[in-house]
Design brief:
Elements: E1 3-5, E2 11-13, H1 21-34, E3 41-45, H2 50-61, E4 65-70, H3 73-83, E5 86-89, H4 95-104, E6 110-113, H5 134-163, E7 170-176, H6 189-211, E8 215-223, H7 229-235, H8 241-248, H9 260-271, E9 282-285
Parallel strand pairs: 3-4, 3-6, 4-5, 6-7, 7-8, 8-9
Antiparallel strand pairs: 1-2
Length: about 300
């Protein structure tokens, strides 16, 4: 059973912590120290709004020097200014843009590959396997999967550079996948395919880094039904807002949307020393959807 040591002679079982407020506070302080990102450089792509903005804010609050990247220069610069981050315009699907970024930022400690599109932004579809166009298929994969590949490739090189010669190379790569990358989504085939690719590439990157003797960890967060601006547009702000929200999460066991702050909390954990033994793993934030049927056993 896990325990903490107040000093070399006093191992304390965690079950007893609730009886000792001073010990509980010590544990919380240690946990907060492990989640501290002070003096670490962190890149968050797609950071102008939604999940990316929440992650950027969380990292900045934890002491990181945040580089917020996005193709929306106005929104990205505004978000960066609000949280004290540096804004850099970046098209994640453009290899040349990553090369230029690497020249200006040759060393990094944390990379969050968050930028992504659904395919529905400028095209209502169809996006099913039978009728989707090859151009739309390529467009989604260029941002979601190519962008993640290029981001991971940059991260490994920049984390090597951050360590310098004769030092342990370390860092954290966090890819943002989706529940849609674990199950089939007939009406959004390209999106589901791209997110499945991200899920698998995360494991390839994790194993590659470990095989090279690098302490670079790579993990994926797989959210679902997170209340972002995309969902807000569908829900609206009319008198039936609450009813529409309830209907949209009726099949979610927890019966609610997740929040961008909850995704950011998971990202902070993966970026920090608290997850030092975690690589190639999937963190699913979906209110229980992938657990299976929400129905209770009949009797």
């Amino acid at each position: 059973m896990p325990c903490v040591s107040v000093n070399a002679h006093t191992p304390i079982n965690l079950r007893t912590l609730h009886h000792h407020s001073w010990l509980r506070d010590a544990c919380l302080n240690e946990r907060m120290f492990m989640m501290n990102l002070a003096n670490r450089r962190a890149l968050i792509t797609g950071g102008a709004r939604g999940i990316g903005a929440a992650i950027a804010r969380s990292f900045a609050d934890a002491g990181a020097h945040v580089i917020l990247a996005d193709i929306d220069e106005a929104a990205g610069a505004s978000t960066a200014a609000q949280i004290g981050a540096q804004f850099v315009p970046l098209d994640v699907g453009d290899e040349g843009a990553w090369t230029a970024f690497a020249v200006q930022h040759p060393a990094i400690d944390i990379v969050v590959n968050n930028a992504g599109i659904s395919g529905f932004e400028n095209s209502p579809g169809p996006h099913d396997p039978e009728h989707a166009s090859l151009a739309e298929w390529h467009k989604v994969h260029r941002v979601n999967l190519d962008g993640t590949f290029l981001g991971c490739r940059y991260a490994i090189a920049a984390m090597r550079a951050a360590a310098g010669p004769d030092k342990l190379v370390s860092g954290s790569i966090i890819n943002i996948g989706s529940r849609s990358g674990v199950v089939g989504i007939p009406g959004a085939a390209a999106y589901a395919s791209s997110k499945a690719g991200i899920r698998n590439h995360t494991k390839s990157v994790a194993l590659w880094c470990a095989q090279q003797g690098l302490a670079i960890r790579c993990n994926v967060i797989q959210p679902a039904a997170i209340l972002t601006p995309m969902w807000e547009a569908l829900i609206g702000d009319g008198p039936d807002r609450d009813a529409r929200m309830a209907a949209m999460v009726a099949d979610t066991p927890l019966k609610r949307f997740g929040t961008v702050e909850e995704v950011a909390a998971a990202a902070l954990y993966l970026a920090s020393d608290a997850s030092a033994y975690m690589t190639g793993a999937e963190l699913t934030l979906d209110g229980g959807l992938l657990a299976g049927s929400a129905a209770s056993p009949g009797g």
